[in-house]
TrEMBL record:
SUPFAM superfamilies reported for this sequence: SET domain
Domain of life: Eukaryota
Name of protein: SET domain-containing protein
GO molecular function, one term: protein-lysine N-methyltransferase activity
Length: 732
């Protein structure tokens, strides 16, 4: 990266972005950061002066005609060139321009009828496409691609690869100006100095993306491009290529951005390229005019490749005056901003990418390592697909669960592995399609724990986004700022909606008395939604979140699986509940005086109750009276947690002190006359080894859930992140 710092100084936008992302690191104190940002500001004059002159030298003779917008005029001339070389545009289509959508395509407003589906609105000849195949002068029995005056050494092309070759080929065509075959097309593209992705944000815009993941992603992209550019230009100079100095870093950034934002998959060239030469993962193509339509999520279009041309077909009826849109795929706003320089308000395919930071020696890290050992072909798939979707996200399989409709299966399964206990990890399932805890009795613990953990993350993420925007102006003043604000607000809204979904499942886990019918759930959900602070989310988002909760089944089939300490006694028969609770309170009162840490240690408190429940189970006369749920659960715990194995574990200080005290006083002395007369001799009640066993169970089966997770969103200042300890007791 250091090799590019001096070059950044030629373009202050680059250094501003880089430094703004580094200001948060310890090496930049306030004084140094201020001096450098001011230095970058002084260098704004003359940015891109080395490249903007090329097209300015070749203005048309009518460029001073103010009756036609020059941008629209350039596109009109592009259409003439396009048709001259065999391209066609449907007679029902026109190219127009307005302030909202810029230059775009639409169905002519004066048509009597809609255009039907399967209409081929544009037909682009392969001869006017631009790609790596042009750079190498590719020829085969199916077609040929001309270099059009830019000829690089073939050995250099082979050494740097198709991606960098294409970027340099585009630069070479740009440098040819009006002599380039593609000049009518290139002059309609955003020019150097006009790009709007965050890499080119000015100093006044960069503050609007602080606190988001955009600066980090942009700097990472600069690092990658920096290395690729250095390697390519150094090798090109080594071949003695003339005019290497004109292939500047600034121009490379422009070319790489144009390709990233406008190029199509090489599948569009399949009609003219032999199958063995179609490098789908490394080659892309620029297609004049087909790249003109704006993006609309879920627009029904198709790019149809032929032997001599590529057609853009609309697969839906479009009425007169309707804009003809393209579909870039299910892009979220971060991808749209980073790659294309814009965002969409209420983008239905928006989602947030979550970075878990998996350590190699963690359970998930070890599982991923094992997965690669079993399925080495997965090594080429570097993306983890850890996403939080917005509640409008449309691309879901019918069988997708409610939780997976908001938290991508890869993310949710990864979280359950990270938050699982040892017995759940014994049921880890590793396949070529994923890593997950096998659904089974008792494995809901990891689901609740995962939802609790992601809730804390979303609360913190939303707070940080809001806090980082506190010093911004009330309203954006540039288009870049507007898109940055849309992105930021969308991320916050996404966090809030997903938090409602997580809170819903956890709330059901805390609901022990209400029924589980459709009407019961509707009432419970209404109570939950009433807790959402007013104005936090739009009515549309709230309504859609409600629908998402009710329309899909939860991963948790039953309510009432999370218990606070006092609620555990309700698992006993009614006649045993009061004596058991009185016994516990008596023990707690005595022990707290002698061993104060016991009263504040939830694991030890839960362990004491678990020890009592296990002792009841171990007493034959009492066991016959226990309800099936409690009998099955204690039996399950005794099977999964070996008494002999856990007694070798080191206990906490409160438990050790409690064990010593209990052992010295004897159970009878601790609880005289409490009415717990059903415990048989040898049941394990308050014996050190059983207390140790119960303490291990409590630690593994506890879940720390957020307290007042929705109400906290409306509080002033940093969220308190209050937690509540609950014990997971599965339903049958």
């Amino acid at each position: 990266m250091a090799s590019r710092i001096n070059s950044f100084c030629k373009n202050p936008d680059h250094i501003t972005l880089l430094l703004s992302s580094l200001r948060e690191t310890p090496i930049f104190n306030k004084g140094l950061s201020h001096e450098i940002s001011q230095y970058g500001s002084c260098l704004r004059v003359g940015a891109f002066t080395s490249t903007t002159s090329y097209f300015s030298k070749y203005k048309t003779s009518n460029s001073d005609d103010r009756s036609v917008d020059p941008t629209l005029k350039a596109h009109t001339e592009l259409v003439s060139w396009f048709i001259q070389h065999g391209g066609t545009i449907d007679k029902a289509v026109r190219i127009t321009q307005d302030d909202l959508r810029g230059v775009h395509m639409q169905v002519k407003a004066d048509l009597p009828d809609s255009i039907p589906r399967e209409t081929r609105v544009i037909n682009t000849p392969i001869s006017v496409s631009m790609s790596w195949y042009n750079a190498i002068g590719y020829e085969c029995s199916k077609g040929s691609f001309s270099k059009h005056g830019v000829d690089f050494p073939r050995q250099w092309i082979d050494e740097i690869g198709p991606e960098e070759t294409f970027a340099f080929f585009l630069m070479g065509q740009y440098l040819r100006g009006a002599e380039s075959f593609w000049y009518p097309y290139l002059r309609t593209l955003p020019q150097p100095g006009q790009l709007t992705t965050p890499l080119f944000f000015g100093e006044e815009d960069v503050d609007w993306i602080q606190g988001t993941g955009i600066p980090e992603a942009s700097v990472e992209r600069i690092k990658v491009w920096d290395q690729k550019y250095d390697d390519a230009i150094t090798k090109l100079e080594g071949f003695g290529f003339l005019d290497c100095g004109e292939f500047t870093w600034e121009l490379y950034m422009w070319a790489a951005t144009i390709i990233t934002s406008r190029a199509f998959s090489p599948k569009v060239l399949s009609g003219a390229v032999e199958a063995d030469d179609l490098w789908e993962d490394r080659v892309s193509a620029l297609l004049p005019l087909i790249d003109l339509p704006n993006h609309r999520p879920m627009a029904k279009v198709e790019w149809r490749a032929g032997e001599e041309d590529i057609g853009l077909l609309v697969l839906e009826e479009l009425s007169p005056g309707h804009e003809i849109s393209n579909n870039y795929g299910p892009r979220n706003n971060e991808q749209l901003l980073v790659n294309y320089g814009f965002c969409l308000t209420n983008n239905p395919t928006d989602y947030r990418i979550v970075h878990l930071g998996v350590k190699a020696d963690s359970p998930l890290g070890q599982a991923k390592t094992r997965q690669l050992e079993l399925f080495p072909e997965l090594a080429k798939n570097v993306e983890d697909h850890y996403y939080i979707f917005n509640p409008f996200y449309p691309l879901l399989a019918p069988e997708t669960s409610m939780e997976h409709s908001i938290f991508s299966p890869a993310l949710f399964n990864a979280l359950t592995v990270m938050e699982s206990n040892a017995r759940e990890r014994d049921m880890l399932e590793i396949t070529d399609t994923g890593i997950q805890i096998t659904p089974a009795y008792g494995n809901g613990h990891s689901i609740y724990a995962a939802l609790a953990q992601i809730s804390f993350e979303m609360i913190a993420h939303a707070y940080n986004l809001k806090a980082s925007a506190q010093d911004l102006a009330p309203q954006p003043t540039t288009l870049n700022q507007t898109h940055a604000q849309i992105y930021r607000n969308g991320q916050i809204s996404l966090d809030y909606a997903a938090l409602i979904v997580a809170t819903w499942t956890i709330t059901r886990g805390r609901e022990h008395k209400r029924g589980e019918t459709w009407e019961d759930n509707k009432v419970l959900l209404s109570e939950l939604m009433a807790r959402v602070p007013a104005g936090l989310l739009s009515d549309e988002v709230l309504s859609r979140t409600r629908v998402r909760i009710l329309e899909r089944p939860s991963l948790i089939a039953k309510n009432g699986e999370l218990f606070r300490l006092g609620e555990l006694f309700n698992l006993l028969p009614v006649e045993m509940q009061e004596p058991a609770q009185t016994c516990f309170q008596h023990i707690l009162g005595i022990a707290s005086q002698e061993v104060p840490p016991v009263a504040s240690d939830p694991q030890t408190l839960f362990a004491t109750v678990i020890c009592l429940l296990a002792a009841t189970y171990n007493s034959p006369q009492a066991r016959s009276k226990l309800p099936p749920r409690l009998t099955k659960w204690v039996s399950f715990l005794l099977e999964k947690y070996s008494l002999a194995a856990v007694c070798s574990e080191e206990a906490s200080q409160p438990l050790r002190m409690f064990q010593e005290y209990a052992d010295a006083e004897k159970p009878g002395a601790l609880a005289p006359g409490d009415g717990v007369d059903w415990l048989a001799e040898g049941s394990g009640w308050l014996e050190p080894n059983w207390l140790q066993w119960a303490w291990t169970v409590a630690g593994a089966e506890m879940v720390m859930i957020p307290l007042q997770s929705l109400e906290i969103l409306n509080m002033e200042g940093e969220p308190s992140m209050l937690k509540q300890a609950c014990l997971y007791v599965p339903q049958e």
